[in-house]
Design brief:
The protein has 434 residues and is an alpha/beta fold. The protein is 59% helix and 10% strand. The protein has a five-stranded parallel β-sheet, with helices on both faces. Helix 11 crosses helix 12. The termini are far apart. Bound molecules: adenosine-5'-diphosphate (ADP) and magnesium ion. Magnesium ion binds next to helix 6. The site of magnesium ion has 3 residues, from helix 6. Oligomerizes as a right-handed, spiral filament on DNA at oriC.
């Protein structure tokens, strides 16, 4: 049977007579992804495209058993280079916008620690480009920055906006790739033609001069066109080392909002929400236990809930406090086995901006002594290393100064809110290996 006979049977008479019978089937693309049809009249082509694509696809399946994308062209049409570029970009934009559909505003628990970032994100998602441009969300690892960023994306997509979500690293790779392939035109068309540009983890722009230069132009172009830009970072723009001034100041043009470590109440609400989403019911006692044992990263809390769920459903274990305590112990043990002392030194070094060699030296300036104390505290907390091990690596003669440092750090954890925050953020970074 030929294609037209099939479509005649599957459609009503007037549609067929007026439009569909003008379809001429040309070919399937070489990779079999697209079936190409031609029509002689521009208006009919666009009418068919908007009304009958699904029907045509259905008939094509009857016709030859495959289900490629349907493309309707004007007969003899040669696409201009610009159109081809635009199409390429449109296709890619929808592909590269791989947003996690579960990262929505609905699934985000709001509390004092993230209220402002949440409100600003919602405002921006509702009216992109109008207020707070750019929006800059910053805060420690695992506290919901990516979640909020993608919630903006999902919301804007629903409202029919063009959204690009990338990490700054993807942006950078894309950029280098385009230079290599002499395809900057395409790169620029992609990043400069969206309604909402979402860039995750911009702290990695640090020291990347060429990418900064390109991002500067992308930023200006979008900002001038009143398109929304949202960025996340683990620190304030002013604290991103090696960021050129003109970018830093632009990052501060709009609104800067932080996400902080949630308080107990918010943590409890998050655990309730996440266990709901995982389809498990936890008692008050268990929820409290988890909330008080895990003191910072929400990602870690989520990990525990997934484990509980797995043990319950795969091993048929009953969910009770003992089981959850066991799982948590396991998780903490695993963390400890995976974390190495040099990693801790490196992360503390880069976060506090003190050279590893200084941390291991005998220097006694306040900043170095503080970094050393932080390392000691974290090594004690996160690894199985003994005091003599630590003393050896840090070039300390005896371990009495180690225990002195630990004592001091414990005091600071009680008294110094700032010290506590630094420790918690570092802990997140180390546990999440970021
Ligand atoms: P970040 O990007 O700040 O490192 P993420 O956005 O990746 O953190 O969050 C880590 C995990 O914690 C995600 O699975 C996210 O859904 C969850 N999460 C973080 N904050 C919240 C919150 N307030 N409500 C619900 N889930 C949250
Ligand atoms: Mg993130």
């Amino acid at each position: 049977k030929d294609f037209l006979t099939i479509i005649q049977k599957e459609s009503n008479k007037s549609d067929y007579d007026r439009y569909l019978k003008q379809l001429v089937y040309k070919k399937v693309s070489s990779d079999e992804n697209i079936a190409i049809f031609e029509v002689n009249n521009k208006y009919i082509a666009s009418w068919i495209k908007s009304k009958f694509t699904d029907l045509i696809q259905h008939c094509f399946e009857i016709y030859n058993g495959s289900k490629p994308k349907i493309e309707i062209r004007l007969a003899g049409e040669k696409k201009t280079k610009k159109e081809i570029l635009k199409e390429q970009v449109e296709n890619e934009t929808s592909e590269s916008t791989i947003l996690n559909p579960s990262y929505t505003f609905d699934s985000f628990v709001v509390g004092p620690s993230n209220q402002m970032a949440y409100n600003a994100s919602l405002a921006v998602a509702n009216k992109p480009g109008i207020q707070y441009n750019p929006l800059f969300i910053y805060g420690g690892t695992g506290l919901g920055k990516t979640h909020l960023l993608q919630a903006i994306g999902n919301h804007a997509l629903e409202k029919g906006k063009t959204v690009i979500y990338v990490t700054i690293e993807q942006f950078m790779n894309d950029f280098t790739f385009s230079i290599k392939n002499k395809n900057m035109e395409h790169f620029r068309a992609k990043y400069r033609n969206c309604d909402v540009l979402l860039i995750d983890d911009v702290q990695f722009l640090s020291g990347k001069e060429q990418t900064q230069e390109e991002f500067f132009h992308t930023f200006n172009e979008l900002h001038n066109a009143k398109k929304q830009i949202v960025m996340t970072s683990d620190r304030l723009p002013s604290q991103i080392a090696g960021l050129v001034d003109r970018l830093r100041s632009r990052f501060e043009w709009g609104l800067t909002a932080d996400v902080q470590i949630p308080g107990l109440e918010t943590k409890i609400a998050i655990i309730e929400k996440k266990s709901d989403l995982n389809g498990i019911k936890l008692s008050k006692e268990i929820i409290n236990f988890i909330a008080t044992s895990l003191d910072n990263s929400i990602r870690e809390i989520e990990g525990v809930i997934i484990r509980i769920n797995a043990s319950a459903s795969l091993l048929n274990q009953e969910i009770n406090l003992a089981m959850v305590q066991g799982l948590l112990k396991e998780q903490i043990k695993e963390n400890k086995e995976n974390i190495k002392l040099p990693d801790i030194i490196n992360i503390v070094s880069s976060e506090l901006n003190i050279k590893p060699s200084d941390i291991k030296s005998k220097k006694r300036t306040a900043a170095v002594a503080n970094a050393r104390r932080v390392v000691i505290y974290l090594v004690r907390e996160l690894t199985h290393n003994s005091m003599p091990d630590i003393a050896k690596v840090l070039g300390m003669k005896d371990h009495s100064s180690i225990s002195h440092n630990i004592k001091k750090a414990n005091e600071l954890m009680e008294q110094d809110e700032n010290f506590k925050l630094v420790i918690q953020n570092l802990k997140n970074k180390i546990i999440n290996k970021e």
